[in-house]
Amino acid sequence: MEVKDIKKAFQEELEPVVIEVKGAKSAAEEAKKASDAATEEAKKAAGKVDSIEGEVKNFSIWQKSKDEADQKNQEALDKLIEDSQKKNVAVGTERKHFRDLLAESIQENAGAIEQFASKKSKDVAFQMKAVGDMTLISPTTFPTANVSVTDLRPGIIEQPRRRLHIRQLLSGGSMSGSHYAYVKEIAGEGAPAPTADGAAKPRLDLRLQEVSVPAETIAGIVKVSRKMLRDVQGLTTFLQSRLPEKLLRAEDEQLLNGDGTSPNISGITDAGNFTPFSGASQIWVEQLVEAITQLEEADRDVNGILVRPADYATILLNRASGSGEYDLPRELVTYVNGQLYVSGVPVFKSTAANPGQFIVGDWVMGANLIIQEPPILQFFEQDEDNVQKNMVTVRIEETICFPIYGNDYFIVGDFYGATT
Known about the structure:
Layout: H1 3-86, H2 98-108, H3 110-117, E1 124-127, E2 171-174, E3 179-189, E4 205-214, E5 216-225, H4 226-230, H5 232-257, E6 275-276, H6 284-296, E7 304-307, H7 309-316, E8 333-336, E9 339-342, E10 345-349, E11 357-361, E12 368-380, H8 386-389, E13 391-401, E14 410-414
C-alpha cells in the first residue's frame, strides 16, 4: 500500500476515537459546570443553615430570658398572694397608700374646709373611708409640682422616714367595740395513754380562758395658719408628708415597749408577752440560732427576727478572731436580694428596735394589730390663742388594739457585749 492509502486508513480508524474524546471532553466540561453549580448551591444551603442555626440560638436565648422573667413574675405573684393572706386582704382588693386616701378625703371635704377657714362653720371633721397602707415605703415620689406658694422651694424638706414600721410585720384586723376579746387554751391536766381492756380511760382537762384587750388611742396635734388652710393643695401636701410618719413612730414604740398601763398598749417586751432568751452562746449569730431553736421547741413557727440596723451590720461583719476573715458559715447565714437570713429565718432591721436587743418571733400568729378607728383628721379654731394668732389646730389620731396571744410566741434577748 502506498503511504497515502496508509494515512487515509489510519485517519479513518482514528476518527471515531477523536469523536469519542471530544464527546468525553464535552461531557467533562458539562459535569464541571454541574459540579460548580452544585457547589454554589451547597454554599447557599450552608449559609441558610448557618442563618437558621443563628435564629435557633437567638430563640433559645430569648426563651431562656422569658422563662427567667416568667419565674420572677410568678415568685412576685406568689409573694403578693402570701402577703395578702397574712394581712387578711383578698387578692385583687385595692389597698391605697395612706397619703392617697388622705388626699382624697381632703379633696372630698374641700368645701367644708373652705367654709371653716372663712368662719362660715364652727368646726370640720372627716374620717377616711378605708385604712391606708401607711408603710411609707412606696416608691411613688412625693408630689410637689403643684405647690401654690411660688416664693418657696416646692415640697417640704422633712426629717428621714423610718424604713420599716412594726405594723409591717403583723397581721391586721378590725373591731367595732372598745375591747377585743378572744378565747385561748391554757395549760390543762392529763393526756391520752395506752389503756388495757376493762381499765378506766385517762381523763383530760382542757382549759380555756377568755381574754379581753382594750383599745387605746394614739393622737397628736399640729398648728397651721388660716392662710395655709385656704390653700387645700398646700394643706394636703403638708399633712400627708409628715403626720402619718409621726403617728407610726409613736405606734412603733407602743407595739414594742408599751407597758400596758392605760392609755399605753401592752407591747411585745411587756412582762408576760414574751419568753426571755435562755441561750449561753456569746457569738451573736449563734445567739439567734439558739433563740430560733428555743421558739421551735415550743412548736412555734419562727418567721422573723427584728434587730437595729447597727446590730444587723455587726452580724454581717463577723470576723474570725485569728485570721480576721469574714467567717459567717454559708450553710447557716445567707444574704439573698438584700435580705439577710439566719437558719432560713429573715432578719429585719428597723430603728424602732431597741439597741442591742433582738426579738425572734412568730409574727404572723403571735399577735394582731386590730384597728378600732382609722386615722382621723379634725380641725379646731377654739384652742389656746388660735383666734389671736389666726391659727387652726389640726389633730390626727387613731385607736388600735394589740392582742398578744401568749408568752411563747416571741423570744426577747440582748446581744452579748452590745451597748444598750
